[in-house]
Design brief:
Elements: E1 3-5, H1 15-20, E2 37-39, E3 47-49, E4 54-57, E5 60-65, E6 72-77, E7 81-84, E8 94-103, E9 114-120, E10 137-145, H2 158-161, E11 162-164, E12 168-169, E13 192-194, E14 199-203, E15 208-212, E16 220-223, E17 237-238, E18 247-250, E19 257-267, E20 274-283, E21 295-298, E22 300-310, E23 318-327, E24 337-348
Parallel strand pairs: 2-12
Antiparallel strand pairs: 1-6, 2-5, 3-4, 4-7, 5-6, 8-9, 8-10, 10-11, 13-14, 14-15, 16-24, 17-23, 18-23, 19-22, 19-24, 20-21, 20-23
Length: about 350
C-alpha cells in the first residue's frame, strides 16, 4: 500500500498501518481540533519533477484534520506518488494544489474510505489563486500551470512553478517546527513554535506570539575571514559574505542593541590617507556605512573598537548587519594599507 490512514472503515487497519501512521502526534488547535500538518523528519513529501507535466511526491507522515466531528486522521505515504497535471488553460495561468486527502463515507458523499495524494485543480485567471481545500485535506504544494502548458510545448517550468505550502505539527507540548505560514494563533498559554530565527511563546492574555526568551542572553559575533581586495578608493564597500559573514538578528522587546566593530586599519600611503572598518544595517532598521559607526586611521595604523547604542528599533523586526571597508588612496599591493582582523558584535539590551 502507498498511502495509509488509521481509523477508517472497514476495520482492516493492519499492524503496519498502526506502526507507520503518527497516532501519537496531537498538537491541539482548539477544544476538539488537532493542528493538522506534516510530521518533521528529513524532507517529508518532497516534490521533484517526474516529467514535463508530472510531479513526484516523496514519502512522509502527517495529520489531516476533518470537521470537529470527524477528528484528525493520521496518514503515512510509504512510497513515492507520481501525479500528472492537466494541460494549461488557453488564456490564463492557474494554480493547482497538491494535497493529502482523506475520504470517509461516514462524513462525505464520495462513497469510499481511503487516503490519497491528489491534485486539487484551480481556476484559470489573470490573477490566479490557489483553490480552497475540501474538508479533511492538507495542502502540501501549490503549482502554477502556465497558460497553454502541455507536454508538447515544454510543460511546467518546475524550478519556478512550485511553491512550498507544507506546514508542520508536533506532539502536545512539543515545539511546532517552522513551516509555511506563521500567521496562526496559539492554542494554549505557553505553547512554543520555531519562527526560523528562534522561539516564540504564545501569550494567551495578550493574544500574541512573543519572542522567547524575551531578550537573548548571549551576544552574536561574526569575525572577518579574509582581507578585502582594496581595489576601490573613496567609497564604502561591503565585505563579501565569504570574507566577513553578516549577522542577522531579531530586535528584542526593548527595541535597543549595542553594536561593536573592532579590528586594525592602516593607511600610510600619504599623510592624508585614511582607512575605515564599518558596518551598515538593512531590514527592519537601516543605517549606512560611515563615521557614525566605524573605526578609522589616518596616515598610520589604528587597533581599536567602536561600541554604539541603537535604540528605537522595531521589536521583533529582522535586521542584518553587513561589514564594510573604505580607503581613500593606496592599493592592495602596499603593505601599509590594510583592513583586517575585524570582529562585529551585537549585544541585546533587556
Amino acid at each position: 500500500m502507498t498511502v495509509r490512514s488509521a481509523w477508517l472503515l472497514p476495520l482492516t487497519q493492519t499492524r503496519e498501518d498502526t506502526r507507520l501512521t503518527p497516532v501519537g502526534t496531537y498538537a491541539p488547535e482548539s477544544e476538539m481540533r488537532t493542528r493538522d500538518g506534516v510530521i518533521a523528519g528529513g524532507n517529508p513529501f518532497a516534490a521533484t519533477s517526474a516529467g514535463a507535466m508530472s510531479l513526484q511526491i516523496g514519502v512522509g507522515r502527517a495529520q489531516v484534520q476533518g470537521t470537529d466531528a470527524q477528528g484528525a486522521y493520521p496518514v503515512a505515504v510509504d512510497a513515492p506518488v507520481t501525479l500528472t497535471f492537466t494541460d494549461g488553460e488557453a488564456q490564463f495561468a492557474r494554480i493547482d494544489s497538491v494535497a493529502l486527502r482523506v475520504y470517509d463515507q461516514l462524513f462525505d458523499q464520495a462513497g469510499q474510505n481511503l487516503a490519497s495524494v491528489e491534485i486539487i485543480r484551480g481556476t484559470g485567471s489573470a490573477t490566479p489563486t490557489a483553490p480552497s481545500m475540501p474538508s479533511a485535506c492538507l495542502r502540501l504544494w501549490d503549482v502554477t500551470v502556465p497558460a497553454g502548458a502541455s507536454a508538447g510545448v515544454g510543460g511546467i517550468p518546475w524550478s519556478s512553478a512550485l511553491a512550498d505550502r507544507r506546514r508542520f505539527t508536533s506532539a502536545y507540548g512539543g515545539i511546532i517546527p517552522r513551516g509555511y505560514g506563521l500567521a496562526f494563533n496559539g492554542a494554549y498559554d505557553g505553547q512554543y513554535r520555531d519562527n526560523g530565527a528562534g522561539l516564540d511563546r504564545w501569550d494567551a492574555a495578550a493574544g500574541a506570539w512573543e519572542q522567547y526568551p524575551a531578550t537573548p542572553t548571549r551576544p552574536m559575533v561574526t569575525a572577518q575571514a579574509a582581507d578585502p581586495p582594496l581595489n576601490q578608493t573613496g567609497a564604502f564597500v561591503d565585505f563579501t559574505a565569504a570574507a566577513w559573514p553578516r549577522i542577522t538578528f531579531t530586535v528584542p522587546p526593548s527595541g535597543a542593541v549595542f553594536i561593536t566593530v573592532g579590528g586594525q586599519v592602516s593607511n600610510r600611503n600619504t599623510t592624508a590617507a585614511t582607512a575605515w572598518m564599518t558596518w551598515r544595517a538593512t531590514g527592519a532598521y537601516t543605517e549606512a556605512h560611515g563615521g557614525a559607526n566605524g573605526i578609522s586611521a589616518q596616515a598610520g595604523r589604528v587597533i581599536a573598537s567602536r561600541r554604539v547604542y541603537r535604540p528605537g528599533l522595531t521589536p521583533g523586526g529582522q535586521v542584518t548587519l553587513i561589514p564594510g571597508w573604505n580607503i581613500s588612496s593606496g592599493s592592495s599591493t602596499g603593505t601599509d594599507v590594510f583592513v583586517r582582523d575585524g570582529q562585529l558584535v551585537v549585544e541585546f539590551v533587556p
